[in-house]
Amino acid sequence: MNATTKPVPKETRPEGEAVDRAAFLKAAAILGASAAVGAAALVSAKRTRISNEPRGEASVRKLTPLPTVPVSRDSDPLLRMQRELARAMAKPVEQRHWIMVIDTRKCVGCHACTIACVAENKLPPGVVYRPVVTEELGTFPNVALRFTPRPCMQCDQPPCTPVCPVKATWKRPDGIVAIDYDKCIGCGYCITACPYNARTRDAGEFYTEETPALQPYEQQPNHEYGKNWKRQGHKSPVGNARKCHFCLHRLEVGMLPECVTSCIGRATYFGDANDADSLVSELAARPNAVRLLEEKGTKPNVVYLI
């Protein structure tokens, strides 16, 4: 041995450390570089167990899977609202009062509710039940967008009903303002009277007009108010005033409104205001809850969280 060369001391690291390093590298590869610290902690926690295992067995063992987080039954508000809907539908119609709550802080302006409503109710061109109003706030470069879905407000004091000369629009016991298409003459008085622009007229148009053939999806009947309405022959609802009705045909079979189920941000809530334990009753009582144009005295049943 060369006199200038010192003997390498025997390694004194604890038995099993090499196994820990291999486990660490494997964990880091799985969890990613950003989780390396967490992997080190995980391996450190296993060190005592590994060092006490028979030699050779520890090297083939896999990392213990990370514990899963239990999911609550109410983790998705749709589940809670569906149960509350079933509870409300078990009551007589006059004992329930439908309201909708929209959290504008969660709305991302995707218009999924608008498109879903068009598809559900087979709406023709020019008829929209749930537009999303987009506003730009601030001054460049400090600007932001605010999105406000605007269904029918289902007012407790609706200005559209008293102006109807044939009593075609009326308020149901459960709070929904409905239209009798068989009575409506399309005069447009209710459209003018609504301060929310929540009513439109069906002019009998089709998206595929002036093409070689109308598409089958446009000729399907819609199912509003529990009846099949065919558009052939310029019959109702063609020529009538039309509006959001909280998907009444879905409620009658125990389903939430289409705009509620299609909202990707879970920004829309629906339920029975007469149920003190319902989610909508809880949300509508918050201090940041407002209603549009309350000064008009319409008493709308759509509440916004801002």
Key features?
single chain, 306 residues, alpha+beta, Alpha-Beta Plaits, 4-stranded mixed sheet, two-stranded antiparallel sheet, 8 helices
Describe this entry's structure for a reader:
The chain has helices spanning 17-31, 36-52, 77-89, 112-121, 189-193, 248-251, 258-262, 279-284; strands at residues 98-103, 132-139, 142-149, 169-171, 177-179, 199-201, 241-243, 268-272, 289-290, 302-305. With 306 residues, it is of the alpha+beta class. Helix 1 (17-31) packs antiparallel against helix 2 (36-52). The strands form 4 sheets. The chain has a 4-stranded mixed sheet with strand order 8-1-10-9. The radius of gyration is 31 Å and the shape is globular. The N and C termini lie far apart (82 Å). The longest helix is centred in the first third of the chain and has 17 residues, at 36-52. It is built from 8 helices and 10 strands. A hairpin with a 5-residue loop joins strand 4 and strand 5. The protein has 2 domains: 17-60, no CATH class; 77-305, Alpha-Beta Plaits (2-Layer Sandwich).
What's the story with the biggest beta sheet? 4 strands, mixed
How large is the radius of gyration? 31 Å
| Beta-strand percent range | 5-15%
Structural class: alpha+beta
When the domains are counted, the total is 2
- Mean pLDDT reading: 84
Spatial separation of the terminal alpha carbons: 82 Å
Q: Number of DSSP helices?
A: 8
CATH topology type of the largest domain: Alpha-Beta Plaits
